[in-house]
């Protein structure tokens, strides 16, 4: 299943980013992302938001507690095709540098919308995966010793 998981993580268009607020409450938002190797990248882009990128709740949460999870799933009316992958990891905010530039390149390659946006000056969330857990309706596709 490893190659299927890798493909799923690279190909899906939307995921859900889970962080924890400074007072311990869960915070989940849908995000577009790029995945490479053991890293997720999420642009803090110019889509309409209520505040500036560095003041977003997800960024403040990561600054207070870098532990984060990404949930990537596939829903189908045929429940035999259901799949999900949860990636737990450590997040950081990239403001510039090689990792930031690579993230911008990956995001632009995956999403045509980013080719028309000036996202280079904006920070990027990077999540280094420390644990992957996955499940399919087809059966025991979880990694040994893992649980949903």
What does this structure look like?
This protein is α+β, with helices and mostly antiparallel strands and 148 residues long. The protein has a single domain (2-136), classed as Electron Transport, Fmn-binding Protein, Chain A (Pnp Oxidase, Chain A, Roll), CATH 2.30.110.10. The protein has four helices and seven strands; from the N terminus they run αββββαββααβ. It has helices spanning 2-11, 57-64, 98-110, 112-115, and strands at residues 15-20, 26-31, 34-36, 39-43, 67-74, 83-94, 124-136. Strands 2-1-5-6-7-4-3 form a seven-stranded antiparallel sheet. Strand 5 and strand 6 (83-94) form a beta hairpin. The longest helix is centred in the C-terminal third of the chain and has 13 residues, at 98-110. It is globular. The two termini are 16 Å apart. Residues 140-148 have low confidence and may be disordered.
Give the arrangement of secondary structure elements.
Elements lengths: L1 H10 L3 E6 L5 E6 L2 E3 L2 E5 L13 H8 L2 E8 L8 E12 L3 H13 L1 H4 L8 E13 L12
Antiparallel strand pairs: 1-2, 1-5, 3-4, 4-7, 5-6, 6-7
CATH class: Mainly Beta
- Helical fraction equals 10-25%
Distance between the termini: 16 Å
Instruction: Assign the CATH topology.
Output: Pnp Oxidase, Chain A
Low-confidence stretches: 140-148
The named CATH superfamily: Electron Transport, Fmn-binding Protein, Chain A
Name the assembly state.
single chain
Main sheet overview: 7 strands, antiparallel
CATH hierarchy: architecture: Roll
Number of domains: 1
Order of helices and strands: HEEEEHEEHHE
């Amino acid at each position: 299943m490893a190659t299927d998981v890798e493909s799923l993580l690279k190909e899906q268009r939307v995921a859900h980013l889970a962080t924890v607020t400074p007072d311990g409450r869960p915070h989940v938002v849908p995000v577009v992302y790029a995945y490479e190797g053991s890293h997720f990248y999420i642009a803090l882009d110019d889509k309409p938001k209520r505040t500036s990128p560095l003041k977003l709740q997800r960024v403040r949460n990561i600054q207070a507690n870098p532990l984060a999870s990404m949930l990537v799933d596939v829903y189908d009316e045929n429940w035999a095709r259901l799949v999900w992958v949860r990636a737990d990891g450590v997040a950081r905010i990239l403001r510039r540098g090689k990792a930031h530039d690579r993230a911008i390149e990956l995001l632009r390659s995956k999403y045509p919308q980013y080719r028309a946006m000036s996202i280079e000056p904006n920070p990027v969330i990077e999540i280094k995966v420390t644990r992957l857990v996955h499940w399919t309706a087809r059966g025991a596709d979880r990694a040994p010793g893992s649980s949903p």
